[in-house]
Amino acid sequence: GAADYAAQVGKLAAVAEALGRCPAQVAVLEEAARIADSHNDEELAYEVRMELIDAATFGACPDVSLVAFAWCLAKSDQEPERFDGSRLLWKYKWVLEAVLDYPQFGREQLEAMLADMERRYSAAGSGLHPVHQTAREVYRLLGDLPEAAAAHERTMRCEEDRLSNCRACEQHAQVKFLLDSDRPADALRTAGPIVSGRMKCAEIPHATYSYLLIPLVAAGQPKVAADYHRKGLALIGTNPKFLSQAARHVLFLAFTDNLTAAARLFERHLPNAAATTCPAWRFDFLRTAVFLFDRIADAHSQPPAAQSVWSAALGWLTGGASKPPRVRFPANFALPDDLDRSDPAALRDHFASEARELA
After folding, report:
1. Which of 53, 144, 243, 330 is deepest in the core (most CB within 10 A)?
2. Contact status, residue 246 vs residue 229, Cβ threshold 8 Å
């Protein structure tokens, strides 16, 4: 009966809440939305999808978030008195950043979405600070640094607003922008309030540490980098949402010739890399794999004495392995049958061709 399906959706929502942010929570809420749809209960379907957008955004399923958001936006545009569109404004920022991770969306679509976001925020009486924040991230990830710099200037001139990102997320975004603008010293200084613990949120400093590792090594501070590496890894664990950040930690270890530690960390995140539906996260992981196996192939052809100075500076990370490591792949990680998994050069070439295809 009518009451039955609503109670069923309520039960699923309670199960989802108990699960916390993860792909399983997303699957439970998708089932709840399916039940609401099958009974043509649009109000209930809207409420479930509002929660689904949050769950998918923070539970490593950005593709699900995009579809749920588009559904809710269409409903609120059709019948604004039935479906409160103002509740979607905050989520619009997440969606625009998620769209950047999918190559199906071109620059024209991204700019149309930015214009749509600006129109909706203005109509709701919001300032444009959050729109400029989002534009900076969009253009940074598009590699258009002049446009990103212009959006950054607008962000810095604008007053914060109820829809602006939290202070920690804004500081983190500035760090990424400064790094991409080839201003590493400014980026490390801007990261100060985050790494000192004065600014934090659900995902900061988790993500921030990974961006600082190579810049710190380049700035002659490998010990600080090693400290941030440990702290960052403890925070991200094996959360699938942080696959790109995990890749940066593997890159740092490979870059500093901690190849055994790099191989073990790479193995730890292979199940997430196999399962992810996000092409940008997979791309970050593939590029790191290319570098890692390139370094391992080099180590096979060099005597240990010829390895770099980093092994001395960070030797206590390595566990002092004398021979190049082998990587063990889990059953769910698809590799060609004829690929020699013990040959690092062959693995490098395989991952390079996969990355090129995605690129």
Report:
1. 53
2. no
Q: What residues contact residue 20 under an 8 Å CB cut-off, 6+ apart?
A: none
- Closest listed residue to residue 96, CA positions, set 165, 189, 41: 165
- CA 25, CA 53: separation in Å to the nearest integer? 11
Residues 284 and 251: their CA atoms lie apart, in Å, by 10
H helix runs in the chain, sequence order:
2-19, 23-38, 42-58, 62-78, 89-99, 107-123, 129-142, 145-157, 167-180, 184-190, 192-195, 206-218, 222-236, 243-255, 259-275, 279-301, 310-313, 315-318, 344-358
Tokens representing residue 341 in the block: 């998994």
Tokens 């960390």, located at residue? 265
- 316 Cβ partners below 8 Å, 6+ apart? 226
For residue 59, is pLDDT > 60?
Answer: yes
**Contact indicator for 249, 261 with CB cutoff of 8 Å:** no
Sequence-separated contacts (24+) of 125-130 with Cβ below 8 Å = 126/89, 126/161, 126/162, 126/163, 127/158, 127/159, 127/160, 127/161, 127/164, 128/154, 128/158, 128/161, 129/155, 129/158, 129/159, 129/160, 129/161, 129/163, 129/164, 130/93, 130/161, 130/163, 130/164, 130/165
CA nearest neighbour of 243 among 268, 261, 263, 226: 268
Tokens 């092994």, located at residue: 311
- As a residue count, the chain comes to 359
Alpha-carbon distances of 359 from 65, 110, 181, 341, 349, rounded to whole Å: 23, 18, 22, 24, 15
Q: Angle between the 129-142 and 89-99 helix axes, to the nearest 10 degrees?
A: 10
- Report pLDDT digits (tens) over 202-236: 899 999 999 999 999 999 999 999 999 999 999 99
Q: How far apart are CA 17 and CA 176, in angstroms?
A: 32
Other beta carbons within 10 Å of 16 = 25
Instruction: Give yes or no for a contact between 97 and 118, defined as CB atoms under 8 angstroms apart.
Output: no
Longest dimension (CA), the chain: 75
pLDDT in tens, 105-118: 999 999 999 999 99
Residue 156 predicted with pLDDT over 70: yes
